[in-house]
Amino acid sequence: MDIINIADKGDLIVEATQKSKHDTPATARFRVSKEVLNMMSKVLLCMLVRARWKESSQSLISLGNDHIAVTEIWLRVMHQTVLVYNLPFPDLWHLVRAIDYCNLDVTAFNDWFATWYQKANLITLKPAELLFPTWRFDHAKGFAKWTKFVVYNHTSCTDKKLEQLNAAKGRLKTVLFRGLWAPCGRLLHATCTCRKETLFDYQAHLYKIDIWPLESVFLRESINEVLEKLSRFSYEAPARACGKCRQDYKGIVAGVKKNVGSYFDGLCLDCLDRSKPKTGDPDLDYWSHHKLEEDDWVRGCRFLHRQPTWYFSFNGRKEERDRMEKKMKASYPYNRRSSCLRSIGNPFGGSDEES
Fold first, then answer.
1. Which residue, 45, 100, 111, 98, is CA-closest to 72?
2. Alpha-carbon distance values, 206 to 37, 187, 261 (Å)
3. Is residue 149 within 8 Å of 131, Cβ to Cβ?
4. Angle separating helix axes 223-230 and 249-261, nearest 10 degrees
5. pLDDT tens digits for 289-315?
C-alpha cells in the first residue's frame, strides 16, 4: 500500500479506514511526525506518549472508522504543509467531528476554510446550511452574508439558537411599516377636504400590489419578496388634490425600500466575540476585563457594517448594550437638517424621522 508523505522525515504511520454501507472499506496511510501530533493534540499526546496506550509503542497506528480525505486535510494543516481543498460540502461535517474528537485547535483551520470557501461550489446549497461552518471556522464575511440572506429571504427562523435573526427580521418589519405609514399619519392630521380620498387611494394601491396590511403579508412572504412588490408602486395623488395631499408617494416608498434593503448587514462575528462573556464572572466581564467602548460597533471588525448589525450581534448584558447605544446617539454630531450627514445616511439605521 502506498504511503502519502505528510512529513518527509516522519516517524509514524497513521492509517485511516473509511467504511461504507455498500462498498468494501477503503484504507489510506500517511507518514507523519509524532512530535507535531503531540504538540497539536492533547488526545494524540496521551495516545502516543503514555505507556498504558498500546499506540505509544507502535510505529503504525489506526484511527479506525474515519474519513480518508478529512484525515489527510487535518494532518496537512497540523504539519503546515501543502494543503488540499477538494472536499465536498457534506464531508465538511466529518472535519468538524475530527477536530472535536482529536481536540485540535479549530483556529488553525480558519485559513484553510477561507480558501475552501472561495473555491467550493456553493450554488446548490441552502444558505442556512452555511451558517454553522462559517461560524465554526470564524469566516466573518461569509457568516454575515448568510445571516443577512436568511433574515431577508426566510419567513422565519425556527431554531431558538437563531433568535437574534428573528429579532432583526422584526426590526425590519417595524422600519418598513413606519416608513409606509408616515404618509398616512400626515394625512390623518390634515384638515383639507381631499385628505380622506387621498388616504384611501394610497392604502388601496398598497393593497393592490399585495403588501397591505403588512401584518398578514409577513405571515407568508419574506422581507425581500415584500420589497420586490414595492417596486410596482406607482400611485400619484390626483391633480385636484391640495398641496399637502400631493406628497411624492413614489419617492417615499422608494426611499423606504432602499432603507430597509440596506438596513441590516448580517451578524458580525467580531461583535459577537467582543461582547460575549469570557471570564465566567459577568460583573468582571463588564466592569473590568471586558468593558466595551462606545464606538466598538465601527472599530476593529473585518467588514464594514452599521449599528443594527452591532445591536443584534451583541452577546452581553442588555442594559450595557442600551447604555452604550444611548450614549453614542447622544454624542454623535448628527443633525437631520444637515445635507452633508444626510448624504452618508443615518449611522444608527432607520429613517431620519425615527432617529
1. 98
2. 64, 16, 18
3. no
4. 150
5. 344 454 555 567 888 888 888 888 877
